[in-house]
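User: Hey, my collaborator sent me this sequence without any context and asked if I could get a structure. I don't really work with proteins. Can you help?
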Amino acid sequence: MPFRTLAFLFVALTFGGCATYPDMKAFVKSHRETPVSILLIEAPPDIDHSRLQAVFAPSAKSPSGKAIASGIEHAQSRALDLMKAMLERHRSFEVVSEPQPAKVARMLKKDPDHPLSQEDADAIHAETGADAIFLFRITDYGLTPGSWRDGYIAFEVSSTLAIAGVIAYTGSAAAHAAAGGYLVQETVEETTEAYAGFWGLDVVTRPVRLEAELVRLKPVGRIWKTDETGLSDIRLSRLTRTIPASERDLQLDQSTNHAINDISADLKKWE
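Assistant: No problem. I've predicted the 3D structure and written it out in structure-token form, which is a compact way to encode the shape of the chain:
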């Protein structure tokens, strides 16, 4: 994998979930005497099922709906259990029971700035006693996030343009021609190598990406959001052999656990 591909992946992993949320800090601080009551909700995974074929049934000649459905069910169940256990370890949060999480999930709107009406938020608080909703979902499972691939193209083209500019800086006609040739060849070659590199990353580490957000109920509003991508243990031998389903499933569980640990680390910033 070329240096620039590695550099991009480092940036994606290191800075993917960084943001500042002053309302979150004030909200947690206002509950110093008692923990913030959290209603934990897992939204359905935002994953293209056709991509999951390569994870759960790579050798199948036709789409394997049963294998994909079983894999998603396990992914959701494990993520929910791990997320609940993680929140319960935080001194500033307390998970409250909700008899009808699906009912609450249906209330959540798609508008990122106003996920709930105040009326719905008040009803949820009255029914559950929750101060906030912790909403999360799986967006990529066993494959590199699509945003990494899209972002790599922009990253690669911009870095290639910079190098081509240096070549052309001499001002000669030959240099300008060389810069043009470099720009075309390098962009095509590097992009092709990058996708090969992403395939290798998929097989070796089985990335799992989760998005999480905290929605305050009074006054209603999203006050914190993050996304984290977990990677399993690295064994380069996976590139040259058939990986059994048991090993693949272990990788996916490890990656899920690591992603949730990173979300936990983000939450600790506000305690």
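In plain terms: The beta strands are 36-42, 93-95, 132-141, 208-217, 220-230. You can pass these tokens on to your collaborator as they are.
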